[in-house]
Amino acid sequence: MPANADEKAINSHCPWSGQPVANDSLTRYRGRTVGFCNPGCRDKFEKAIGAFEEAIARNARSQAAASDS
Ligand SMILES: [Zn+2]
């Protein structure tokens, strides 16, 4: 989900590379705007979050299924 371009990222440097944040490489995380040095870094972050969200959801489902039996 692209962040509003008017918002400023809470960080000034990309956590992957240490390069300054670019205005076209922002996203939302836990209700805040976070920035990266380029869209590739942002996409890598979004992909990682997505994978963890999916794993958490899968884990919660399997625990719910286990408590049913
Ligand atoms: Zn970067």
Task: Give an overview in words.
With 69 residues, the chain is an alpha+beta fold. The protein has one domain (1-69). The protein is built from one helix and two strands. It has one helix at 39-68, and strands spanning 26-29, 32-35. The chain has a two-stranded antiparallel sheet. The protein is elongated. It binds zinc ion.
Oligomer category: single chain
Hey, roughly how much beta strand do the residues contain? 5-15%
Low-confidence stretches: none
Domain unit count: 1
Brief digest:
This protein is of the alpha+beta class and 69 residues long. Helices cover 43% and strands 12% of the residues.
Features:
single chain; 69 residues; alpha+beta; two-stranded antiparallel sheet; 1 helix; binds zinc ion
Please describe the topology of this protein:
Blueprint: E1 26-29, E2 32-35, H1 39-68
Antiparallel strand pairs: 1-2
Bound molecules: zinc ion.
The site of zinc ion (ZN) has 8 residues, from loops.
